[in-house]
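assembly run, all chains below
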Amino acid sequence: MRGLLWLLIAAGLVLSVVADLLIPVEPGHDASWWVHIPGFFAALGFFGCVAIVYIAKALGKWWLQRKEDYYD
Amino acid sequence: MISLPPALILIAGAVLLPLLPRRIRSAAFLIFPVLAFLWLLSLHPGDSLTIPFLTYNLMVTRVDLLSLCFGYVFVLVTFFGGVFAFHVKDTAEQVATLLYAGSALGVVFAGDLLTLVCFWELMAVASVYLIWARGTVLSRGAGMRYLIVHLVGGSILLAGIIININETGSILFNHMDGGIAANLILFSFCLNAAVPPLHAWLSDAYPEGTVSGSVFLSAFTTKTAVYVLARGFAGWDILIWAGVIMAIYGVIYAVLENDGRRLLSYHIISQVGYMVCGVGIGTEAAISGVTAHAFAHVLYKALLFMGAGAVLYATGKSKLSDLGGLAKAMPIVLGLYMIGAFSISGFPLFSGFVSKSLVINAAALSGMDWVVLSLNLAAVGTFLHTGLKLPYFTWFAKKTDLKPSRIPVGMYVGMGLTALACFIIGVYPNILYSILPYPVDYHPYSARHIVETMQLLLFTGLGFWAIVRVLANKPVINLDFDWFYRRPVRLAYTVFVAAPAKLFGLVEQGAFIIGGQIEDIIKNPVGYAVKRMSFIGIRRQDKKTAIADTRAYNPDRYRISVETMMLIILIVFIILISWSMLAS
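ok done. output:
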């Protein structure tokens, strides 16, 4: 069951990138510059995720995080 | 036909509910949103009701497509939340909920600014009880801060309204063009929409509400604010970037947040950011997108709060560092929560997919590339936290020895109904699109949109899997803008409470000392004088007699003895005799 789930997710990852190459960009409607870069949204997803986490963690470590009794 | 305000039905419910037998109150609660829904169905765009009041004509009801759409979702979530809260026995909480929902409806259908501000204040007062009803020390403090912030916001709104009436002579609530009045009103609307830096009340108070109270809190206050912004401030450019900042801000804080329900609260800020941004864009497509997203958001966010609330109900814990390994014990809650998570993340087949993309598409149509990219980045963060982090650390991650108690059937049914609504909207978007204020020509299920979304979300999942160890939170809190009114409280306490109290104490002590002295003198002037004069040796006293002397005056105690008198008389007699003998 768990193996199947991982297999499906892996297949989804590959399929979403392959499909990106196969499906032509619709002219006009949502033609921003990035739609011409294959796998742009995959990169945004992966690096966006990592960037958000590390930026937030750095902010937390150096500035924002305090002990739970800070306001008591 | 007279278009009475739909708010009246829920407010009447709040009045009637305590009069009914306790056993049927939870069931009776559900009747009022149903009646309100039927009432809404009987209203038509263009209906209105104007009542003369003093020198003004109050437009207590104004119906158009925008207000109807918000009205529908408010009564829907009141019903679903009512089912979820079926087990609640606290009548005051039920009454507060109906009053809160009713006043939210009142704001949405208010045609003039005076009616609006009345319901606006009622909303703040009713909702604070849902926080206080939790009954913890934390909830008492958070509720008080929530109330103060909202009453300040309400006062600023009233100030703006009064200036506006003076300037324009009209009390009608329509699109605003600028000036001091409009800016004051915008400020208070932004406060309720939780636009940073005016947002901290939300993430401070919502997690401290009761299990079901937070479900309602997540639905009404911010969404009425989105409604009034859309009605009054569509196309104000400042809101575009305010919205983008909100969307990212909530996501950043959600990384750091350890409390599950506070994490969800930060994601309210993030999601309302999409709506505020859409209001700023202000085109017809954008306003329709905002309305659709608000509609979908109310439902999926309620579902997420129900899920986290059910875990809190069963285990008594909401901090992710205390939770884990509950998947075997609470699989249904996990499943239903995940429908909410897929909806907010915008997975195909779920409601967020068809509503969020309307806002992003509106930005793309207006050529705002950076806005589109930022909102997509916020979507990454949304799935990362609500879809991955929260469920992973709640239901999986580590084994704990938590023994979750059984949760009431009503909770399952409430979650199930809400999840069903999220799914139906996702699969049949035209149901939602057909009630939007402006016609929508958008087909979310294009191959390109599905592929882009799946790429974005699946690779976010890959990123999460790669750095999941970094994400585990320690039990800490994070500074936010509430620092500015929570931290200086100590200084304010010292200056305005402790120092005056100490001064009063000193004065009081002084008064007591003086009063005591005067009392001693009046009670027994002779005794007092004797005690005071003992230092010149007229009469030496030990402490015991000194105390005795402060008793009430008794002439016998100070009467000079007969022997002494005789002696004095004798001495005087001898002196006189001697004097007269010497003189003769």
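The helical segments of chain A are 2-22, 40-64.

The beta strands of chain A are 65-66.

not gonna interpret more than that til we talk
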